[in-house]
């Protein structure tokens, strides 16, 4: 056999069983790929905090634990990127080492190579010999055992900080995380799952309180503005320490044209958060992706992808379509998710986000997920353009799926209120017209549902803001935009702003008649909606004539027994004078409540409203005894269904009180009406017209009782 070798090549020939082993060592020990950090005795941080704001309780606990000298302790600071975990570790490191009774060792644990290099430097610092280090670097000796052996034998106590340990597997795989009687270990990480940190004491680090967040800005840029202006900026930045630090750095380093905090806040509102915030990174001594809000989250997403959870990125992009308020978890369970990620993978994807502190679970009476606003803004800004429309459309469909198609009257619903800010955020993000239309449809239905649960203030916000957001893109004549305006008018009326409600209803009615004709269902809805503010403003005759015209058109277009026609006929009982009521009630083949019950069912909300207005009509006609029986029965039913503070329950109780007064039972009437007045003041406010009306009835009942007069209907 023949062989040739060139250069550094080798040729071997063997017979029988022979084994050849070669060891090659090129260069000196210092040239190994495991490079050591420049220093482990000084924290490697981008920008040291000027003053650590808040965190007092946590700092006191950690400092007492470290200075107690007990050892064998591992503490883990976990939280989302940019929340200030490293700042807490840095401050503790400085305080402990300044006293001189303990040395500090700082190691970057962001990846395996950096961790090993830093930990071997720790071993060298604690007395490891060059041959020991060489053997560890060459794989001939377990490096973690060498490091911890030296730490256990340290002649002075120590504090070891393992910073940026966002992938706990890096620590676990090599056995790098241990406890020692000679010192204390402090880990900073985004990984919140307790399973990664057995025997460690976990501490969550979140955003700052408002006053402390404002003070961070004032610390960095004291000449830029007032504390209150700083607090407003802090609110817009979600009080996230990284964002505050970057904003303060930007303000402090503007030379040619220094900015004020007011100017900065205005620009934040104008151009969005992420680009402007990251401009503050120019002042950093060591700029990298961890110090930018636009990219710091990518470390966590990359780690999740490496763990087989790329769906977590897709889920986070979906969450970025909504707001930073608590989002009901039920929103994330619909089949509509399949356009973005497999529904079967949602649970794992969400668990990944939770473990990496990219979102959190909160219980506000309903299980929700909550994500920081700056994180959402940066994720939305970094989403691939070709995926944005699909993700936004999915977000709109998910929202629409959890809102009733035809909302009914019901008790307050916390889930609906929680959805309100997310519906508006979705509309603000929607740039595609089809997505905007779908999102607006969901928002209008949400406003209706909120209105029918008695949450008029939130219904007003959703309806009016939805119209303002979408009108420039869809146009003032779009049917859904007009629906949003109409719902705004309904909410204004319930909030006692009758003049505004009348003006808006008239405008929408005119637009609908012009665009869709007088007999269109939307036009008829506006006609019905205008009647109520006219009635509340005391223009009873005008309201009655309008309602009669509406009923005539509804009977012609929808039919006499359509629910909307029945609803208008029920409302007419409230408007008609006594001179007409008798003929309507006595001339009917069947009482209107019974007619509604036969057509819609005895439990239908229109049936119950018919019973209430029928009792009102009987009272108007002076038929107090049957009116009392009917009113008390329906009031009890309203309270059972909707609770004692629901608006229609209070209306029914008001009628009961009026009937009691008319029957001469003034003590009962005063007691009942006082309770109604108190409840209305708590829910509507002292200045609401309904509250004022309730107080006026109480005063009239008391005056009648004091005078000993025969009661008359107030």
TrEMBL record:
<dbReference type="Pfam" id="PF00931">
    <property type="entry name" value="NB-ARC"/>
</dbReference>
<dbReference type="Pfam" id="PF13374">
    <property type="entry name" value="TPR_10"/>
</dbReference>
<dbReference type="InterPro" id="IPR002182">
    <property type="entry name" value="NB-ARC"/>
</dbReference>
<protein>
    <submittedName>
        <fullName>Tetratricopeptide repeat protein</fullName>
    </submittedName>
</protein>
<feature type="domain" description="NB-ARC">
    <location>
        <begin position="58"/>
        <end position="220"/>
    </location>
</feature>
<dbReference type="InterPro" id="IPR011990">
    <property type="entry name" value="TPR-like_helical_dom_sf"/>
</dbReference>
<dbReference type="Pfam" id="PF13424">
    <property type="entry name" value="TPR_12"/>
</dbReference>
<dbReference type="InterPro" id="IPR027417">
    <property type="entry name" value="P-loop_NTPase"/>
</dbReference>
<dbReference type="InterPro" id="IPR053137">
    <property type="entry name" value="NLR-like"/>
</dbReference>
């Amino acid at each position: 056999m023949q062989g040739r070798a060139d250069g550094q090549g080798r040729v071997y020939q063997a017979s029988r069983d022979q084994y050849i082993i070669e060891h090659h060592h090129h260069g000196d020990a210092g040239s190994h790929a495991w490079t050591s950090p420049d220093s482990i005795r000084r924290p490697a941080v981008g920008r040291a905090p000027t003053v650590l704001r808040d965190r007092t309780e946590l700092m006191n606990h950690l400092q007492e634990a470290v200075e107690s000298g007990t050892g064998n302790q591992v503490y883990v600071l976990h939280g989302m990127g940019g929340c200030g975990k490293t700042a807490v570790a840095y401050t503790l490191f400085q305080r402990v080492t300044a006293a001189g009774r303990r040395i500090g060792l700082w190691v970057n644990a962001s990846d395996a190579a950096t961790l090993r290099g830093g930990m071997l430097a720790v071993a060298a610092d604690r007395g490891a010999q060059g041959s020991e280090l060489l053997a560890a670097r060459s794989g001939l000796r377990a490096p973690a055992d060498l490091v911890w052996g030296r730490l256990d034998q340290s002649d002075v106590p120590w504090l070891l900080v393992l910073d940026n340990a966002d992938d706990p597997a890096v620590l676990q795989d090599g056995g790098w995380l241990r406890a020692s009687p000679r010192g204390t270990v402090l880990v900073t990480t985004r990984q919140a799952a307790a399973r990664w940190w057995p025997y460690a004491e976990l501490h969550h680090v979140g955003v700052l309180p408002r006053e402390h967040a404002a003070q961070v800005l004032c610390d960095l840029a004291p000449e830029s503005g007032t504390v209150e202006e700083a607090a407003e900026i802090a609110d817009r930045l979600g009080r996230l320490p990284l964002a505050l630090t970057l904003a303060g750095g930007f303000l402090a380093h503007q030379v040619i044209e220094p900015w004020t905090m007011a100017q900065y806040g205005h620009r934040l509102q104008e151009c969005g958060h992420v680009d402007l915030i990251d401009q503050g990174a120019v002042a950093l001594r060591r700029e990298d992706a961890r110090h930018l809000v636009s990219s710091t989250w990518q470390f966590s997403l990359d780690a999740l992808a490496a763990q087989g959870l790329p769906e977590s990125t897709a889920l986070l992009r979906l969450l970025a379509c909504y707001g930073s308020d608590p989002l009901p978890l039920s929103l994330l369970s619909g089949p509509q998710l399949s356009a973005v990620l497999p529904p079967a993978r949602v649970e794992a994807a969400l668990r990944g986000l939770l473990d990496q502190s990219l979102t959190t679970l909160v219980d506000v009476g309903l299980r929700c997920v909550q994500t920081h606003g700056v994180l959402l803004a940066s994720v939305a800004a970094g989403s691939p353009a070709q995926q944005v429309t699909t993700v936004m459309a999915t977000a709109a469909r998910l929202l629409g799926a959890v809102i009733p198609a035809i909302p009914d009257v019901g008790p307050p619903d916390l889930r609906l209120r929680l959805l309100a800010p997310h519906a508006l955020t979705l509309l603000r993000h929607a740039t595609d017209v089809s997505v905007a239309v779908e999102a607006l449809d969901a928002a209008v239905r949400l406003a209706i549902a909120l209105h029918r649960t008695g949450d008029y203030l939130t219904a007003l916000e959703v309806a009016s803001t939805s119209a303002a957001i979408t009108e420039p893109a869809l146009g003032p004549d779009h049917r859904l935009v007009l629906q949003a305006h109409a719902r705004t008018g309904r909410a204004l009326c319930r909030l006692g702003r009758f003049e505004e409600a009348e003006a808006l209803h008239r405008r929408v009615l005119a637009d609908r008649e012009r665009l869709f004709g007088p007999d269109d269902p939307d036009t008829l809805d506006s006609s019905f909606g205008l009647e109520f503010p006219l009635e509340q403003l005391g223009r009873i005759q005008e309201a009655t004539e309008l309602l009669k015209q509406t009923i005539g058109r509804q009977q012609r277009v929808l039919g006499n027994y359509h629910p909307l026609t029945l609803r208008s006929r029920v409302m007419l009982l409230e408007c008609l004078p006594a001179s007409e009521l008798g003929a309507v009630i006595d001339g009917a083949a069947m009482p209107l409540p019974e007619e509604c019950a036969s057509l819609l069912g005895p439990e239908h909300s229109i049936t119950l409203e018919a019973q209430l207005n029928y009792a009102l009509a009987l009272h108007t006609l002076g038929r107090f005894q049957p009116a009392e029986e009917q009113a008390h029965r329906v009031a009890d039913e309203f309270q059972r269904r909707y609770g004692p503070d629901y608006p229609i329950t209070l209306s029914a109780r008001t009628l009961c009180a009026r009937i009691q007064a008319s029957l001469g039972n003034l003590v009962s009437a005063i007691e009942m009406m006082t309770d109604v007045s108190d409840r209305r003041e708590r829910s509507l406010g002292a200045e609401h017209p309904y509250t004022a009306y309730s107080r006026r009835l109480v005063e009239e009942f008391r005056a009648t009782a004091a005078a000993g007069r025969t009661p008359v209907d107030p």
